[in-house]
Design brief:
alpha+beta; three-stranded antiparallel sheet; single chain
């Protein structure tokens, strides 16, 4: 019988060789794949996570990845036995497990589809919001296109509302009394995006990720969360932004050389 996520993760943390109240598990990312380990993995970008032995519920260190089956491997590293869910050279199978990762975030792929720019949708409101906040008009339109397809009456399964698909708490924080008012939603979304761009020093990728999955998720993963929904959303918004800039007469952005 395969262990469940709590059992497998608890075992992973308990495999450390010393008795402590909180144990360290490393969350390692390599080529967009995630693993958990008792020591940093060679070739991976690893962050240490503390697992409290007395916690009522085992924390979700994977992210939103659905249900999948995996393997816990053991191998020697720097003269010690370490354990990881990645099959690295010299590894031996230790046990099999099944993980059911909960969503845990308001992330979604968005309700709008990538398509041709729609410059006539709420054009006056976007222009005014961009002027008031200093946020690129094309960027605001890309967000709205990805979020709702410009539908002022859109409501997502997660509870986001309006053109900019603001969650209720966010709408309240940014002064949106009627989230289904296109003008209020666009103004509130622009103010929220201004705050995100300020937080991330103008990094639109991180701002888009936080708009989708929340600031907490970006902080926790120290970058774009590995959720399938968020990765798809960021890619969608980036593509739309280039299309809107081109349609609005701006030069396309290219990587620095």
């Amino acid at each position: 019988m395969k262990p469940t996520l709590p059992a497998a993760l608890a075992l992973l943390s308990l495999l450390l060789p010393w008795p402590v109240a909180a144990r360290t598990v490393y969350r390692c990312v390599q080529n967009n794949t995630v693993s958990l380990a008792t020591a940093p993995e060679p070739g991976s970008r690893c962050t240490a996570q503390q697992v409290d032995d007395n916690a009522v519920q085992t924390p979700n260190l994977w992210g939103n990845m659905g249900v999948f089956s995996g393997t816990l491997y053991e191998r020697e590293q720097d003269g010690a036995m370490v354990y990881s869910t990645r099959n690295l050279p010299g590894s031996r199978v230790f046990l099999k497990f099944t993980v059911a990762t909960p969503p845990g975030e308001p992330a979604h792929e968005g309700l709008g589809k990538v398509g041709t720019p729609q410059l006539n949708r709420h054009a006056r409101q976007f222009k005014a919001a961009a002027k008031a906040t200093g946020v690129d008009d094309a960027w605001l339109r890309a967000i709205a296109h990805a979020e709702s397809g410009f539908d002022a009456g859109a409501v997502s399964p997660k509870g986001a509302q309006g053109v900019m698909q603001l969650m209720p708490d966010t709408a309240t924080e940014f002064g949106v009394a009627d989230p289904l008012s296109a003008e209020q939603s666009i103004n509130g979304g622009a103010r929220y995006m201004k705050a995100l761009l300020k937080r991330y020093k103008g990094d639109r990728t991180l701002a888009a990720a936080a708009y989708n999955a929340g600031i907490g998720a970006v902080t926790r993963y120290k970058g774009v969360p590995p959720y399938a929904e968020t990765l798809a959303y960021v890619e969608k918004v980036s593509a739309l932004y280039q299309r809107y800039r081109e349609a609005m007469g701006f030069k396309l952005e290219t990587p620095a050389k």
